[in-house]
Specification:
There is one protein chain. The chain is built from 14 helices and eight strands. By secondary structure, it is α/β, with parallel strands linked by helices. Helix 5 links the parallel strand 4 and strand 5. The protein is globular, with a radius of gyration of 20 Å. 49% of the residues are buried. The structure holds 5,6-dihydroxy-NADP and zinc ion (ZN).
Amino acid sequence: MQDFDFYNPTRIVFGKERLGELDSLIPADARVLVLFGGGSVKRTGTLDKVLAGLGERTVFQFGGIEPNPHFETLMKAVALVREEKIDFLLAVGGGSVMDGTKFVAAAACFEGDEASLLRHGFASMPVERALPLGTVVTLPATGSEMNCGGVISHEGGKWPFTCPLLYPAFSFLDPTLTYSLPPRQVANGIVDAFVHVAEQYVTYPANARVQDRSAEGILRTLIEIGPETLAKPEDYEARANLVWAATSALNGYIGAGVPQDWSTHMIGHELTALFGIDHGQSLAVVLPSLWHLRKAQKGEKLLQYAERVWDITDGTADERIEKAISRTRAFFESLGVKTRLSGYGVKAEQIDDVVAALQAHGMVALSEHGDMTPDDCRQVLEDAFAEPK
Ligand code: NZQ
Ligand code: ZN
């Protein structure tokens, strides 16, 4: 096992109808900004419940944070925060709203060029202060509710950031607030959580048994409850398990002390930025092909994955690995998420644009070994493009 620090200060408030407890978690004299997306929280009544939970506090609202949130949109919220001397942020929405809120929390306290905060990748943002924030989750997927990272769109790219000051102070996970999600977003969330686990697990062995068994438990849970919760969106138990699986997939616990490989995410971000493919969909396209082409580097963990997640024990090592990859692809497809790039209207010649974007964004040494070149990414995308003949 590798050395690690594990720190996660986010309080999780899990369960139905608990938004009344907001009152006890935010200072009584706080000036609160509630941030949300394109309007789903108004239609579903979630915003009203949040406002009721905030009681007599001074509350401002900022709506219109779009999926894959844009820097320019968020800077309008930063201006409002500064103008109104807001001192607590409350994100009500999915990953885009939560990530956007984290960015606002840091940018509002930063005195330099706020866009520069997006240029530090997986190294911490150089900020000394950020506003405290909480979240009310309406879409189980990203894990943003219990981690300190986010992804912001700017100048045609998607820029990841991280900073320990940006852990939410609390996150409300009420599975019933997610019942209104369209099936496409539920399926995207299942795939996103699955791939978060995969990128912290399918690397090379580190003899990290708790992390491995926990990762396998989350993957098996997603395989079990994914179809159930899609078929019965208002089955509380199935949805509750999806919500906690998604949070557990990216709150740092399974990733402590193990090698990680975020290549699928980095390639997927370019697909979203260039072609508008949803985050979850982009991952479903990349992961199976990436595994197929990186069998040499990931062989041992792919075999472990085949046996412990899919119960595949027959055949040669290569047959077992290929079977596990096919089962993964078939699982994503069974949720209604297409796994071929051509299925999203992308043309073969546009693969060049993706490779150029990866290069422009410095994504030239990806993977757990740092040995994945733009040319390797091209091969992954070519493999992912169309059905094999
Ligand atoms: O904007 P509204 O009207 O709220 O509609 C949203 C949006 O259109 C809708 N929605 C959310 N909750 C709903 C609902 N519709 C009906 N009922 C509800 N209860 O869903 C749509 C998608 O929302 P979005 O927040 O964009 O989706 P998601 O949660 O998948 O977040 C994706 C973003 O998170 C980033 C992605 O890159 C992407 O920008 N990620 C953040 C991570 C993190 N912070 O750790 C890790 C992830 O890998 C990911 O990269
Ligand atoms: Zn993701």
